[in-house]
Amino acid sequence: MRKVSLDYNFVMKSNLDDGLNNEELESELKLVEEGLNRLNVMVESNETGFPKLVDLDDGEIIDFARSIQGEFEDMIIIGIGGSSLGFEAVANALLPYNYNALSPDKRGYFPRFWVMDNVDPYKAYWILEHCNPHKTIVLVISKSGSTVETAANFLVVYEWLLKNNVDLKRSLIAITDPKKGDLRNIVSRFGLKSFEVPENVGGRFSVLSSVGIVPFAILGIDIRELKNGGRFFIHNGKNLYLKMTAIYNAYIKRGKKINVLMPYTSRLKSFADWFCQLWGESLGKRYTRDGREIFFGSTPVTAIGTIDQHSQLQLYKEGPFDKLITFIQLDKHDFNQELDGEWYENYKYLTGVDLSRLLNVELQATEVALKKANRVSMKIAIDFLDEFSIGYLFMLYEYVVATLGIINNINPFDQPGVEEGKDYAYGILNRAGYEDKRKDYEASGRRESDYIV
């Protein structure tokens, strides 16, 4: 049986002056149970589909990945937000550090990977400089196909492929909506290979759909174990999830408006970035479902132990009382190394200590230092980091965030604040149908020279 645990000692009244008492926690747990019941109804009615991703048949994807193994030296992923962050979370957690620098044999002859997310010309230029167009597979990932950054980067890569006479049917794959959208139209126009994103799964909840599963399979990552981890959470993680969601909700109510996720491993840095999008887009809402103005949310922040002990921890310990910190601990780290400091007097205390223990000792020390300053923290502990455990973490946080939205009467599955910015960009760029947005921008975006220096 795999181990995942939640230590919430340092959110409770028994350890903190203003911690939660048992009655408060029980009250929140009842609310979360109600939220879970409502989420289950939404899943059964297909209003949302992310929990069912763990049971989708990936046979076609596995067969496709096997059919191209060894054929491509590089894989370019074109996508942004939910179309890239989940992929990077898994790739950077599970593949060797600086994977792209390894020789083909040390990579198992799986391709290097490059992510074209931002429309930064410098980044786009150097990605293409690294790649041989005839040895590169390109995945264009966008549910709508209209995301401006993805469209722009696709045009750059499309021109690069055409200029080099590359067979698009061989090298270009689309991952998009099954029926509609610009990418679906392009698939039909060129007869491209494509994989579908379920209509009832939004981008930030889509990592265990074809959005993530296709590139994972191409890189040789065990997608069945990823889904096994997510499935294990659904069937065995209820108690942990209920407690965690209840604690988050209680402290949002108490004004802890900054939510820090601090894994004590550099391998989970990109997972923390994925968490920031999931939390921020899902829970930062101006209106309730019934149209009442609420301005709900808390700000997600990523920190990495021990690195950010030397930057952010000073603020967390002595700054405003506005943060809840969630640590992630690995019980066992890969490639552990034991230290020998016998040759220098001031390093002798490290003799016999391994790096894994040192990381966890620093985490334990940080927890207690924060507790003594009356700062709130809890800790997720996993036995080790692999496909199973990261699949569990994905599903855990998706359930937590969806439930927090439901019990606070907001929609955790939309992002109207993001859409408005996109619409202004379309208007400025003279996209047909967005003329009113251009006029609105010109009227609202005026700047006075007096305030520019």
TrEMBL record:
Catalyzed reactions per annotation: alpha-D-glucose 6-phosphate = beta-D-fructose 6-phosphate
Single GO term (MF): carbohydrate derivative binding
One Pfam family linked to the record: PGI
Organism ancestry: Bacteria, Pseudomonadati, Deferribacterota, Deferribacteres, Deferribacterales
Protein name as it appears in the record: Glucose-6-phosphate isomerase
Gene: pgi
EC number: 5.3.1.9
Pathway: Carbohydrate biosynthesis; gluconeogenesis; Carbohydrate degradation; glycolysis; D-glyceraldehyde 3-phosphate and glycerone phosphate from D-glucose: step 2/4
Function summary: Catalyzes the reversible isomerization of glucose-6-phosphate to fructose-6-phosphate.
InterPro entries from the UniProt entry: G6P_Isomerase (IPR001672), Phosphoglucose_isomerase_CS (IPR018189), SIS_dom_sf (IPR046348), SIS_PGI_1 (IPR035476), SIS_PGI_2 (IPR035482)
Superkingdom: Bacteria
